[in-house]
Design goal:
Blueprint: E1 2-5, E2 8-14, E3 22-27, E4 29-30, H1 31-37, H2 50-54, E5 61-69, H3 71-74, E6 78-83, E7 86-87, E8 89-94, E9 97-103, E10 109-112, E11 120-128, H4 131-137, E12 167-169, E13 172-174, E14 179-180, E15 184-189, E16 194-204, E17 207-216, E18 224-235, E19 238-239, E20 246-252, E21 258-266, E22 280-290, H5 301-305, E23 311-317, E24 322-325, E25 328-329, E26 332-333, E27 336-339, E28 342-344, E29 346-351, H6 363-375, E30 380-383, H7 392-401, E31 404-408, H8 420-437, E32 443-447, H9 452-458, H10 461-464, H11 467-488, E33 493-495, E34 516-517, E35 539-541, H12 550-554, H13 567-571, H14 578-589, H15 596-620, E36 627-630, H16 653-661, E37 665-672, E38 681-688, E39 694-704, E40 709-719, E41 723-731, E42 742-751, E43 757-764, E44 779-785, E45 789-796, E46 800-806, E47 811-812, E48 819-821, E49 827-832, E50 836-838, H17 844-850, E51 852-854
Parallel strand pairs: 29-30, 29-36, 30-31, 31-32, 32-33, 34-35
Antiparallel strand pairs: 1-15, 2-3, 2-5, 4-14, 5-11, 6-10, 6-15, 7-14, 8-9, 8-11, 12-13, 16-17, 17-21, 18-19, 18-20, 18-22, 22-23, 24-27, 25-26, 27-28, 37-38, 38-41, 39-40, 39-42, 42-43, 44-45, 45-49, 46-48, 46-51, 47-50
Helix pairs in contact: 6-7, 8-11, 15-16
Length: 861
Amino acid sequence: MKILELNGSWSFRQNCNEETTVYPVQIPGSVLSGLIDAGAIEDPYYRENEYAVRDLFKNDYTFFRSFELDDEFIEQESIDLVCEGIDTIADIYINDNHLAHTENMHRTYRIPAKEMLKSGNNEIRIDFVGPLKYIEEYVPAENKEITNVPAGGIAGNQYIRKAHSMLGWDWGAQLPDCGIWRPIRIEGYSDIRIDDVKTIQKHEDGRVSLTVKVDFDKRAEKRYKLSTTVQHAWVGKKRVFATQAQTRSTLVNIGDDGLTVAFEIEEPKLWWPNDQGEQNLYDIDISLKPVGMLAGGGANATQINKIEPLCSRHLTIGLRTITVSQEEDEWGREYAMCVNGRKIFSMGADYIPEDCIYSRITRERIEYLVSSAARVHHNCIRVWGGGYYPSEDFYDLCDKYGLVVWQDFMYACNIYELNDEFRENIIAETVDNIKRLRHHASLGVWCGNNEMESAWVDWGWSNSHSAYLKADYIKMFEEIIPGIVKEEDPATMYWPSSPSSGGCFDNPGDENRGDTHYWEVWHGQKPFTDYLKHYFRYCSEFGFQSFPELKTVETYTLPEDRNIFSAVMESHQKNDSANGKMLYYISENFRYPKDFETLLYTTQILQGIAIKAGAEHWRRNRGRCMGAIYWQLNDNWPVASWASIDYYGRWKALHYMAKDFFAPVTGSLLKTGEVNKEFSGIQAWAENESADEIKVAVTMQVKKTDFTVLRKTEAEAVMAPYSSVMVIDEDYSEFADMRREVFVEAIYTFTKPDGTTEQLVQIEVLVPWKYMQLEKANIAVETTEDEESYNICVNSDKFAPFVTLVLGRADALFDKNCFAITSNETVCVRVDKKDVFRGEIGTAKELKDMLKVIALQDTYM
């Protein structure tokens, strides 16, 4: 096989009747990446530039370049143009001859092109229709008019098979970019080609039967040798060769259109999710060589081995089983991820594209995001249906870091018109992406869509839209797509929608079946204690907003913009009335902050304690609930949102808090005896999401803000594997008269079977934080460094909750942040030098000079 990559330098122009400027663009790339690199437009993320940039996509664009093919390439029997990502409505021309029309950015197009190519210089041109122009001109079928518009989106976005969030969402900018967003190349070949590889695993009696099914693009017209090698090659990101490779060589005979190769793997190294075991991975390498070309067709092994492969394929797989248990139980029907026969409590977040400009989504950025999730003990990630099907890099990294992927198909909060063309388009899209992703160890669930079944039931769609469109929903998500999954990837569960109780519009919000999205905290403005009323089987969305930190806000504002109700700040808030909603929740929980910076800080504390309240409650009720997936992990531009990591990769307070509340072995405090938002008691719970029996000792103390101990309780318990247990249940009514002057500290000591221990400190108060009489804390900081890290030692003379460290001219990840100082003892925070990712820190003294420390009382006037 011969391959000519067409990535790299292209040119593009806007199409109009007058002379237009031609700009260079690097492919993969787009109109926006090209214009920004050329300095032709201002940063679309700055202030309110988004709207002028958005309107550029009412225009059409042409991308073009030339390339050379030699005689040997042209003499190949087949030559295909392979486009892994064309965004979106486009016509492709080679040497001014029309080659193909595309209408789906989610598909890979393989287009025969031999007849249009020549030896020497060739020209390729791709004409893109402006996406806004396309949807404005789209005419729906009679009786199928669609008036629904997703929050923050552009009307008509459902008419184009493009990432919906590119046309805006309630956290995302309206920047409907277009271009060649994934690699493009030309392939030439004169023999059969490996078209598809499918792996099938059967786990039985401690061994795995692995079948590798190889399909060719056509029937063989001569003989070939197919070599397939399987080897345990990875433990997470670490390369290993712990076992001898198994290789099978198989003869491809005339007329064969594929072959099946079988392996028996004794004592297999299984793949496990993060914190459940090792991420063992096996490499599969497949190569195809000709045999019949040798004299008499009777080639020996030495002769064959010297021949270069005609084509090859590489896969990395994990040996594991992943199912979703839906057994009947006392509460209804459970919904639990089951990996290698073990039911795990899913902990993680919902993922959106990392940028509005997709060529910026590099492997390095994906790895930073995935590793950040794994570092705070996520074991699951839900790919939301309004973005795009992630790259191989994303899945490869989820394999290596141990995140089970809940993969939505790319449909979200929309109504679709199922005509013949759309049916054909989505069938091809579904097959393409299943075949591309199904071998990954991390793939756990295929899900039809985001929130569409519940929208037909609960959002009034049935009253406002045609019954024909509702019938189209059933055809798409309960017939067409599940049928393809069953055919192409029967080992992976298909779930019709999220949320759902199983489909057919059967009460998709049922708390006792299926998965649930819960938004009464936030959209419904319910208090955080409302989480305690619900025992969802699997909560796949719940969330709370915050602003990013000041350094991020400064990237898109001028000083005069830094009021949360300014035009610029509201432009970087895509959820209606959300800035006011954050103020409402501040008024319920905290005092009004003294300035803009501490207001941003306070919203992050709010967000953290909101998600912590839900996650801890559901973990305490493990077995009844088996998943807490918060909305959302990341941002696609600098914005106020539900994300725990902002656009620039800065961890918010929520992300640091998740390191404790998602830890496999952890503890939580539950306030009891509520009267008028004040509490008379506290329970200390411990949670164990590990296969070990864990001993836990808890020391719970009532303290004044000067650290004076007023009451001390100690207790021990033994936690069975995969369980939760209440360790202490204390009534603190005796402190009613001084409840605004005291806090409760719980020190957990966890002992593992090998004798190693871990400690955790949790705090609670008996009144809303706004009523606490916090004294000014004199916080002292000392910094030191060694070869690999910086160390920050912090102490205080008074109780200091939510202590947050902020760096000036650099960004870095702390091993802990947003912590409490509950005694005279020093709290030490480590920063590994490899975790300084923007700017430089320099010496320990320079670190101290740039370090800002904020505690809750610092927000007071």
